[in-house]
Amino acid sequence: MDKIIEEARIVYQERVLGQTFRLGLHSPEIVSAARPGQFVMVRVREGMDPLLRRPFSFSRIYPERGDFEILYRVVGRGSLLLSRLAPGEGLNLVGPLGNGFELPGKESAPLAFIAGGIGIAPLLELIARITSERGKKGAEGLRLFYGARCADELLPEDALRMPGLRVHFSTDDGSSGYKGRITRMFEEVLAEGEFRPCGIYSCGPLAMQHSVAKWALSTDTLAQLSMESLMACGIGACLGCALPASTPEDPGAERFVHVCEDGPIFLAGSIKWKNIPAQQTAPPTWPFN
Ligand SMILES: Cc1cc2nc3c(=O)[nH]c(=O)nc-3n(C[C@H](O)[C@H](O)[C@H](O)COP(=O)(O)OP(=O)(O)OC[C@H]3O[C@@H](n4cnc5c(N)ncnc54)[C@H](O)[C@@H]3O)c2cc1C
Ligand code: FES
Fold it and tell me: What is the pTM of this model?
């Protein structure tokens, strides 16, 4: 599908908590082709400053009104400028980009969603789709494991209320929910023996994703991970978002894939974890951005 360039209109801009915002955009052409797990490249301001577009996932998609939502955290200049925009203003977008999540079948197999911090964003639309397709009864085997550094960085429970979904919270400092990493909580819940997922969808920091992948591979569970990378173009042109991985055509071999075009969703087993450069966890400052 061709990428669409569209001038979207801001419908709403709300602070959800701390440095986290919800941005509602009217963008009917992009919305008509968007799927959970895909993203848009946003020109946060006209002109050369900042030069590059910024990638943001679809956190909700509303095809009936041609709108979608971005849930984002202010971490630098681009996201700060974004947070200052007001309803009625325009925003230039390219999208939908990337492959998106593979949706599960309609049957009621138990699924786990694992989110770290702002990694909750792309999972929200995915969970909404699955719960609405399954209906309340079938959604009962759906669990969200959602962790953040502290309570101030966790979305309120109301924002996560979906039919049949059970949510487990954790914070690193213990200020809300389980104290410790969300992946540890996940493993402890599984050890209780009541819940065993047939599939996992996950988005969050690299160390969390690696830990999810290790568990999934050791138990032969299918895991789809939404991977992050610094992105300059978002369309496979700059080669800046390379990730060491294998491809379905040649699972034994290693080559570099591109998070923007081949991903951002990858199967846990396709990523060559030990060969991911260290700067993926602490990305270098761009020479220009
Ligand atoms: C496919 C994809 C989807 C994304 N979806 C969301 C989303 O839904 N919500 C959201 O809040 N963020 C999302 N991000 C991350 C978001 O793109 C960055 O936070 C944003 O580009 C930062 O721009 P900035 O100008 O504010 O910060 P910059 O000034 O560019 O950077 C500030 C700091 O954040 C780091 N940083 C920048 N981009 C990334 C990145 N991609 N991964 C890790 N660290 C980064 C920089 O190295 C620097 O330390 C997504 C990233 C990708 C690749
Ligand atoms: S961001 Fe340019 S190739 Fe992926």
Answer: 0.93
